[in-house]
Amino acid sequence: MATMQSLDIRRRSASTEVPPQVRQSAIQVAKLIDVSKCIGCKACQAACLEWNDLKAPIGYTDGTYNNPTDLTPTSWTVMRFTEYEKGDDLEWLIRKDGCMHCDDPGCLKACPAPGAIVQYTNGIVDFVSENCIGCGYCVKGCPFNVPRISKVDRKAYKCTLCVDRVSVGQAPACAKACPTQAIYFGSKEDMIVHAEHRIADLKSRGFEKAGLYNPPGVGGTHVMYVLNHADKPSLYSGLPDDPRISPMVGLWKGVMKPISLAAIAFAGVFGFLHYITKGPNEVSDTDERKADDLAKGKGA
Amino acid sequence: MSEDKNVVARYTTAARINHWITAVSLILLALSGMALFHPSLFFLTNLFGGGQATRAIHPWIGVVLAISFLGLFLRFFTLNFWRREDTVWMKNLGKVINNEEEGLPELGKYNAGQKLVFWGQSILILLLFCSGIVLWDVYFEDYTTIDQKRLSAVVHALCAIGAILIWIVHVYAAIWVKGTLRAMTRGSVTRGWSWKHHRKWFRQEVKKS
Asked: Residue A136 is nearest to which of B45, B137, B179, comparing CB atoms?
């Protein structure tokens, strides 16, 4: 997407500039995906393709309902189907996967290209494709394995949370298309309240571990799930139990940057100071004479 | 060079060309790598035609450096084995830094500092090459896991900083110790320089002629 002029930016990748702060901060938005209401129809996938002008190449089927089998540069959301067996009970766990819009986005932290990833004040994390250089650092930064690099233009793509729709007061295309209202969209505050009602309902129906997935390790997310087994998120096709930005990324994009530049600057300054205090190491005339003597067979 | 009786041949033309290919590619790699390492240095991508071009070119320069450095390694590694006098030299590093190296043991073609530069860069460039392959998504994206790529990013950055620091030492030593640079620009050094800094090597060269 292009940057949305109607939305202020809270964070901008690889930038040291101070973000605009005068306007009242926007309402935090969130998408709430109620896994227990999802019927796996893939209307959200179709709506995503249509709204975002994406056309995925015809792929293959791996014998499951997962189609396409993974997120791709042209499939920003996919339904992941899991057959969960517990004793005689079989549950079909269906999770709509895609960008979680972390409040502390690892992709943005890792990105080296100024302004290629932005986080708007409403919480949406978006890739600004014209600034993307295709390095794939966002892939390393993401705790959810979401960004995909296109083989066509070597740029990263993922769900935009339909920022172009949201900025004019519309719900994301997937939420609009969902026939069972398993996808809600609104302020994050409202979505949490709504989730609480759904969780209470699920608990009354025997899902004692039902709960909200809004992982604190990444500062919470602007895409949240109501899970009927919230104690084991990984049941849902490997949804991370406790996602956080990898400590390796934290090191690489944190302390290493200033320390490295300081070390290089120190080495340069040390050399300069050494030169002006100790001076150059020069060959004396005595050295030259002794060397000549040796060369002529006279010296030691 | 050897026609001039007052100088000692130190590097062949082939060795010098090999060295300067390595030097230029290392500088270009440092500039393009730093551009993608720290946001305040991103402007350096302009030297390479923008961010995308920098991302695309950097690994190819890395390939040139790897091959070129391998040439230097094969040329010089036998001359860089650690010897007893190197330990003595290192223990007296303070004297060396104070320009008081009289009384230190006579040295072969390389002193301990030069040997450490040689082995340091050899190890770091090997690590940079391996981690760089893992990060080269255009061709190798599918061969490693994301966690391996994360580790490689850290290793690549750490080794690059190490290599840049060693490079600064290397360049500064050439500025500080007068008469050194001509070894790589003209292939020869003066007799006095050889006597002062690498007397054992100088004796061998005199014997040869």
From this structure: B137
